[in-house]
Every structure is written in structure tokens, then in C-alpha cells.
Amino acid sequence: MSAWGRGVLAVARKDLVQEFRTFQRLATMGAFTVLVGVLFSFSFDPAAIRAQDVAGGLIWMTLVFAGVMGVGRTFALEAEDAAFQGVLLSPVPRDAIYLGKVIANVVIVSITVLLIVLAFGLFFQLDYGAHPIALALTLFSGVVGFVALATLFGAVSAGTRLGESLLPVLLFPLVVPMVVYGAGATHRLLLGRPLVEVEGNIRILGAFAIGAVAVGAVLFRHVVED
């Protein structure tokens, strides 16, 4: 493996080891997910509205808000003791640092998404059996695109006085297309619609994810140097 690849894996491993030692972000995101599921279960009348009809949007909104809570802490934890400056002084290239953090955040947010799917399935008695692979691909593509942008703008917000509170303002307008296509595809899959109806949405989500990672890798150097 090249030095660049080893740098990516080293950064990802560092972030994951730090998280799995404390479970700070996972615990917060998990608690938020469960509370959202409980609140949503009491927010509508199942006799008037089928949970299967609204679950797609609820899953994606929970993903976004829980993801902001978790990814927003990526740089804040290191900024508390100036540890991130040590990372920047290492011989690891800036784009490798970014991709390593994206990989770690994708793992953390994916675990949260799995909890969202399980919690919503429990609270709303959802049927995921129609197209589980397509649903998993849809959610994973959304996670990658969301995390790529959130990691980049997390670095931007960490360098300001507003800190994490600025992240949603910068991030939410850019993830609107992802939520629209992702929620639409998830809604159709939960209703058991044919896969041909969601193929376009999944391709767009994949392109969004690839583009977000590429743009983030290019811009991250300028963000951290400023």
C-alpha cells in the first residue's frame, strides 16, 4: 500500500479508535434517534396516516439531524487540546486527512442509520422486505454524500467563533437535493414499487456522493490552511 493510502487508513483508524473508546458521538446520536422515533410514533394517528407512507421522509430527516450532531463534533474534539494542529503537521497529505475522516464518519453515521432503520421498524412496524439491497444502497449513498459535505463544512465551522452552530446553516441548503431524491427513493421502496422507478434516484445519489467526496478532497487543503 502507498504512503498516501496508509495515511488515509491511519487517520480513519485514529478517529474510530477515539470514538469507540468513549462512544460520545454514537451515544448522542443513538439517543436522539430513539427519542425521535418515540416522538414521531405519537405525532400522527395511525388510523388516518399509514406509517409506511411517511417513513421515507422521517428516516432521511432523522439521518440528517443525527448526522449533523455527530459529524459536527469531528473537529471540535480535536480543537479542544489543539490536537488537530498536530495532525496537520504530520507528513500525511491534506486530502488523505480529509478522506480518512470521511471514512471514519461514514462508519459512525452508518451505524446510526442502522439504528434508525431498526428503531423505526420497531416503532412503526415497517416492512423492509421488498427491496432491502436497493434500500441499503440508497441510504449508504446518501450517507457518503452527506458525510463528505458535513466533514468539509465541519472544518470550516470549527475555525469560526460560531463553531458547530454554523454547520447546519452551511450544510442544509446543499443537502436538499440529496434529501429529495433519497426520501423519494426510500418512499417508493418501502411501498414495494418496482426498482425501475428508483434507479434514476439511486444513480443521482451515487453521483452526488462521488462529486461531494471529490470536491471535499480538493477544497479541504484550502479550508484548513486558511
Automatic annotation (TrEMBL):
<keyword id="KW-0472">Membrane</keyword>
<dbReference type="Pfam" id="PF03379">
    <property type="entry name" value="CcmB"/>
</dbReference>
<feature type="transmembrane region" description="Helical">
    <location>
        <begin position="23"/>
        <end position="42"/>
    </location>
</feature>
<comment type="function">
    <text>Required for the export of heme to the periplasm for the biogenesis of c-type cytochromes.</text>
</comment>
<dbReference type="InterPro" id="IPR026031">
    <property type="entry name" value="Cyt_c_CcmB_bac"/>
</dbReference>
<feature type="transmembrane region" description="Helical">
    <location>
        <begin position="54"/>
        <end position="76"/>
    </location>
</feature>
<feature type="transmembrane region" description="Helical">
    <location>
        <begin position="202"/>
        <end position="224"/>
    </location>
</feature>
<protein>
    <recommendedName>
        <fullName>Heme exporter protein B</fullName>
    </recommendedName>
</protein>
<dbReference type="InterPro" id="IPR003544">
    <property type="entry name" value="Cyt_c_biogenesis_CcmB"/>
</dbReference>
<comment type="similarity">
    <text>Belongs to the CcmB/CycW/HelB family.</text>
</comment>
<keyword id="KW-0812">Transmembrane</keyword>
<feature type="transmembrane region" description="Helical">
    <location>
        <begin position="170"/>
        <end position="190"/>
    </location>
</feature>
<keyword id="KW-0201">Cytochrome c-type biogenesis</keyword>
<feature type="transmembrane region" description="Helical">
    <location>
        <begin position="135"/>
        <end position="158"/>
    </location>
</feature>
<keyword id="KW-0813">Transport</keyword>
<keyword id="KW-1003">Cell membrane</keyword>
<feature type="transmembrane region" description="Helical">
    <location>
        <begin position="96"/>
        <end position="123"/>
    </location>
</feature>
<keyword id="KW-1133">Transmembrane helix</keyword>
<keyword id="KW-0997">Cell inner membrane</keyword>
